[in-house]
Design goal:
424 residues, 17 helices, globular
């Protein structure tokens, strides 16, 4: 998880330079979108693998794919090669995340699971302290390619260190109930639908309108298959938990991927300085995650509700950063607030999902949680790309980013309304 965090923070910091060097400004949002949609497919595949074969196989499959993606992206000579590398990273990262969720459910009793998920948040502390600054320094003084290539030997070392532990986990899980079919085709259809919608919206024409309609026709039926019944209607219990994860993570990610772009393009920050809000934000996330971890008897929905509230406040705070007359330093405060909200809500939703899941459904429900996160993140990041393409540009993003910040604040407020303690 620490290496995934390094990659996430490093890519966000270095992306403006990567896109400029590879002459892919019109595809700025796509390295993020591709990562998210391939993660969605990996989540479903990994959920099935973990329910049938245990988490160890999924973990090592994910590490291999993640390393391959780092190599391809680090050696990319074109924007399309970078996108292929990001796709492989998404497949690997999506598989790893599900395997780790199921491992926690295997190893820790229910009362200890909040602390275990809190430990995952702590895995972001070291990357938060040095990741964005290191990525910025590499980008300025060496090459952005080392943001990817420098993690390859560390990923291999991490996999070797895990080997003794995962060997003790069960290799198979006995299935005692029916297993939902058609999930993998639905995941592929959803991923293609998101990609089609995003491309159509960023390149408006008669032909792309038809492409967008086809994407929508693929996406909506797929979501009804991939997510628990009642998710989109916010039914109490597991469905609203899955929906809340998508809204929370999607709104946060949609703002996060454009923070460095805003600071570099609007306020002239260097890559090192532009990455610092991500550092303090990730530290705030980890620090805030301690509170639910140390209070296992408090209703998790209380923390989720506060998480949405802080995210809304942080999104509105970014409105003072996006204009040319704004203040770049406010991004530090706004991102601390928004990230603290994620620390309170994110792990709490993970705990709730595991509590609602039987042993035979842990992988599938963890996958549904991640699918919701990936779908909403991809769609909302794509919305930012659409606004950037139609109303602004990577060189002058202010108008697009202001609209995006307001929209994400509205989504966070909707989350507050949907998630109420005592609503099971």
């Amino acid at each position: 998880m620490t290496l995934v965090a390094f990659e996430n923070l490093g890519v966000n910091t270095a992306m403006p330079r990567m896109v400029a060097d590879l002459r892919g400004g019109e595809l700025y949002s796509w390295p993020f979108t591709v990562f998210l949609v391939t993660s969605l497919i990996a989540n479903v595949l990994a959920g099935r693998l973990c329910d049938r074969r245990g988490p160890a196989f999924g973990l090592y499959t994910g590490v291999i794919l993640f390393m391959a993606g780092l190599l391809v992206a680090g050696l990319a000579q074109s924007m399309w090669m970078l996108l292929i590398g990001r796709a492989l990273q998404g497949l690997g990262g999506g598989t790893i995340s599900i395997a780790i969720y199921v491992m926690i459910a295997y190893v820790y009793p229910e009362r200890a699971q909040p602390a275990a998920f809190g430990i995952l948040s702590a895995a972001w502390v070291l990357p938060s302290l040095v990741g964005p600054a290191a990525a910025g320094l590499l980008t300025e003084h060496a090459s952005w390619r080392w943001v990817f290539l420098g993690l390859v030997p560390l990923a291999l070392l991490g996999a070797l260190l895990l080997l003794p532990a995962v060997r003790t986990l069960p290799a198979r899980v006995e299935q005692t109930g029916p297993v939902r079919g058609g999930l993998v085709p639905a995941a592929i259809a959803a991923a293609l639908g998101i990609a089609a919608l995003t491309w159509a919206a960023e390149h408006p024409s008669l032909a792309t309108i038809l492409l967008g309609l086809a994407g929508l026709a693929m996406l909506l039926p797929s979501l009804f298959r991939l997510l628990p019944k009642g998710t989109l209607a916010a039914r109490p219990g597991l469905p609203v938990t899955i929906l809340a994860r998508g809204l929370l993570a999607g709104a946060y990610t949609a703002i996060e991927v454009y923070v460095t772009l805003t600071l570099t393009a609007v306020h002239g920050y260097s890559p090192v300085l532009a990455g610092l809000p991500l550092t303090v934000g990730a530290l705030a996330w980890s620090a805030a995650a301690v509170l639910p971890a140390r209070n296992p008897d408090v209703d998790r929905l209380v923390f989720v509700r506060w998480g949405f509230t802080l995210l809304a406040a942080g999104a509105l705070g970014m409105l003072l950063v996006t204009p040319t007359w704004g203040w770049g330093w406010i991004s530090f405060a706004a991102w601390i607030v928004a990230s603290a909200g994620m620390g309170l809500g994110y792990s709490s939703l993970s705990v709730l999902t595991m509590r609602y899941s039987s042993l035979q459904e842990q992988g599938a429900n963890a996958a549904a949680l991640q699918v919701s996160e990936r779908v909403f993140s991809a769609v909302l990041v794509g919305l930012g790309g659409v606004l950037l393409a139609l109303l602004a540009s990577p060189q002058r993003p202010s108008v697009a980013m202001a609209i995006l910040d307001v929209a994400m604040a509205v989504i966070a407020v909707i989350g507050v309304v949907l998630v109420r303690p005592g609503r099971r």
